[in-house]
Predict the 3D structure of the following.
Amino acid sequence: MTILKKVLEERFVPFLPPLLGNVQPAAQAAKQLSRAFSGFALHKLLNLSPLDAAGAVVDDFQGITP
């Protein structure tokens, strides 16, 4: 799990669209890992680059809309 988290943080989190709203840093870090895993799944299933896969993640915190 430690290796997966490191890969997600290095290869996917920097390319995720920004989160909306003002949330606690711990909650934001956990959400970013969750979103990064979605990008990882897209990367593996659709053979997308990490940059493209992370950019395709559109979820955010529940109840916050732009």
About this structure: The helical segments are 2-11, 25-46, 50-55. Residues 18 and 60 are 9 Å apart (CA to CA). The chain has a mean pLDDT of 88.
